[in-house]
Amino acid sequence: MTHALRTTRRSFLKSTAVALTAPAWLPNLTVAAPSEVVRHASFGASGMAGADLSSIASHPKVKLVCVAEVDLARAEDLKKRFPETRVYQDWRVMLDKEQKNLDSVNVSTPDHMHAAMAMSAMQLGLHVYGQKPLTHDVYESRQLAQYATAKKLVTQMGIQIHSHSAYRSAVDLVHSGAIGKVQSVHSWSSKKWGDEGTRPDRTDKVPESLNWDLWLGIASERPFIGGDYYHPGNWRKRLDFGTGTFGDMGCHIFDPVYAAVGLTAPLTIRSTGPKPNAFNWANNAVVHFTFPQTPYTIGPIVPVTWYDGDARPPQEVVTQYLGKNPLPDQGSLIIGEKGALLIPHVAAPVLLPEKTFEGYQRKPFEDQNHWHQFVEAVRGNGTTSTPFSYSGPLTESVLLGGVATHFPDQKLEWDAELLKFKNSADATRLIRRTYRKGWEINGLS
């Protein structure tokens, strides 16, 4: 590390420390007043980041000022599309140099860096569009949600189907009582972001375009393994960097369930699927939640079950409502007193049995632009639909499911207020990780 980078990093950490430790009664002078044009930066230049920044920059009142990308080869296409946009390899340097030129950012990187980047940006008064899952760990989600609310920052999580007419219709159907009070929920995804193998015992050459230390970020040091083992895609399978299938798709698929049923924090979580190994998430998870009763449910608890990979809801449940028709590859089945609601990912919700609801009049919904909604909120026009105050608790529930997979067949009792399990100190230790020395972030580590 050069002397210049050490100095920049020191000044960056100092500025974020001041932002976090300022007395609560002081006005938040760091928050950028929205201008006619929103000046935006992206954490990441390709993949999901490329999609997010492109969607945000498609708003006519957005200027893409700069981008941070640890693999400069993945920024080549961006340079062609946005030739005036400045590219940094170190996101801390970008924030240090560009903070006065920015109003907002999107965080669209591997999961383990979401919290560090989002919190650092918010501590500089920047509004944040953060990819799902909001964070890698439960504690981080709680901290981001609380900070964003306290500082009155505009935030939005990248569960863009929340703004789609299909998911909005699903929520309305439950709220309007179409299926009566909710009795139980089944949600699933056919994706397999797990790996039964162990970590290869080798060290490969790091590509010249990639800064491996920056890619690791808050995670502990380890050798680079090529062949797409980590970068650019398979990090989702690795415990330290991704959150498995549940973390990847759970925030999407749980979203309409969470909103429609009015769920809060779970009471208990129990995994009956396979356990992760020392390095990787497992496939074929089955995680059973109980949530407290809501205005839309019946009984003292609400059972909600997640399945992924090859796992699916019990066949008798499927047959009862779908007959011989197969389930979609991904989606949810909300079972109520009067029938059930099938919510495919992504398609129009289906009331079941279909004969029972033939001719049922639905309220019409139009698709909304999730990214432009964020931009307009930053400009002072309206609000976002998935602020961290909503998406933080949603992410917490999803991540708690991941924690439970480490303890098969144990019913873990969750204390949401204290962020701990009442009956497992071992599980509680997985709620919060230790950041690598030198990568500490105020409010997170």
Verbal overview:
It is a single chain. With 445 residues, this protein is α/β, with parallel strands linked by helices. It has a domain of 174 residues: 3-Layer(aba) Sandwich (Rossmann fold), CATH 3.40.50. It has 13 helices and 15 strands. The protein has a nine-stranded mixed β-sheet. Helix 3 links the parallel strand 2 and strand 3. The longest helix has 19 residues. 49% of the residues are buried. The N terminus is likely disordered.
SSE inventory with pairings:
Elements: H1 3-21, E1 38-43, H2 48-57, E2 62-68, H3 76-81, E3 86-88, H4 91-98, E4 104-107, H5 114-122, E5 127-130, H6 138-150, E6 155-157, H7 165-175, E7 182-189, H8 212-216, H9 244-261, E8 268-271, E9 286-292, E10 301-308, H10 315-322, E11 330-336, E12 340-344, E13 350-352, H11 370-378, H12 388-404, E14 412-415, E15 420-421, H13 425-428
Parallel strand pairs: 1-2, 1-4, 2-3, 4-5, 5-6, 7-10
Antiparallel strand pairs: 7-11, 8-9, 8-14, 9-10, 11-12, 12-13, 14-15
Helix pairs in contact: 1-4, 5-6, 6-12, 7-9, 9-12
CATH architecture of the domain at 3-161 and 372-386: 3-Layer(aba) Sandwich
Distance between the termini: 22 Å
Largest sheet: number of strands, sense, barrel closure: 9 strands, mixed
What's the CATH H-level homologous superfamily of the domain at 3-161 and 372-386? NAD(P)-binding Rossmann-like Domain
Number of discrete helical segments: 13
Mean pLDDT over the full residue set? 93
Strand order of the largest sheet: 13-12-11-7-10-9-8-14-15
Helix and strand run: HEHEHEHEHEHEHEHHEEEHEEEHHEEH
Radius of gyration: 22 Å
| Named CATH topology of the domain at 3-161 and 372-386 | Rossmann fold
Number of strands: 15
